[in-house]
Design a protein that fits this description.
single chain, about 210 residues, alpha/beta, Rossmann fold, 2 domains, five-stranded parallel beta sheet, four-stranded antiparallel beta sheet, 7 helices, about 30% helix, about 25% strand, binds adenosine-5'-triphosphate, membrane
């Protein structure tokens, strides 16, 4: 599904990684590990097509993501370390906005979905009035709505409590069973056993 071919990245004259090669198949989950500043977010941003590698290329379904970005973007769900949630809007307004800009014309009933994520009674208050973990849950609602096959998630467990972490991993299992693929960074170990988990560790290079 996804091929990282000889990818290198230099930031502020420091080579974060060079000649990186790996691939991710349908139904697979991959954890990107490494210390702060190793380059995990930089790599995810390259894979999502938000920045260009200094060398190498990213292929999705055997095609360069740069040449076929529109198709690739349609099949990608990226949730960054910053949640991307507008804190002035409510949870429902945020989700509606996200659905609209991503071209989803049918709006499902959002209240049961938000309820699943523990946001009952908080659906219509501005997100700035929610806790950090609740704000993260609003961002993660996209994982229940998107039909993208490839999920790229930067620190998705940040601020979540134990039940939130477990619930999110249940969702990962469903996605993998539906032949989706997941690439994520996390500083904590996954608590669910994924039979096909791969780990790539980026070392801090000086
Ligand atoms: N836009 C940028 N401009 C210049 N340097 C950057 C930029 N983004 C990141 N860097 C540098 O690249 C290095 C790697 O940052 P990155 O965010 O990819 O690391 P990370 O492994 O995700 O770290 P963390 O675990 O702390 O999230 C850091 O030294 C950072 O200062």
């Amino acid at each position: 599904m996804l091929h990282i071919k000889s990818v290198s990245c230099i930031k502020q004259e420091r080579c974060l990684f060079a000649d990186l090669n790996f691939s991710l198949k349908s139904g697979q989950i991959m954890q990107l590990a490494g210390p702060n500043g190793a380059g995990k977010t930089s790599l995810l941003r390259i894979i999502a097509g938000f920045s260009a590698p200094d060398e190498g290329e990213v292929l999705y379904q055997e095609r360069s993501i740069n040449k076929y970005y529109e198709e690739f973007a349609h099949d990608l769900l990226f949730i960054g370390h910053k949640t991307g949630v507008n804190i002035q809007l409510s949870a429902v307004e945020n989700v509606r906005f996200w659905l609209r800009i991503n071209g989803y014309s049918n709006e499902p009933d959002l209240y049961p979905i938000l309820a699943k994520l523990g946001l009952v009674g908080l659906e219509d208050v501005p997100v700035r009035m929610l806790s950090a973990g609740q704000q993260r849950r609003v961002a993660l609602v996209r994982l229940w709505l998107s039909d993208a096959n490839l999920w790229v998630l930067d620190e998705p467990f940040t601020a979540l409590d134990k039940s939130g972490v477990a619930f999110l991993q249940q969702r990962f299992t469903q996605h993998l069973n539906n032949n989706g693929a997941i690439l994520l960074t996390t500083h904590q170990d996954l608590t669910t056993h994924f039979s096909d988990l791969q780990t790539i560790t980026l070392e801090y290079r000086h």
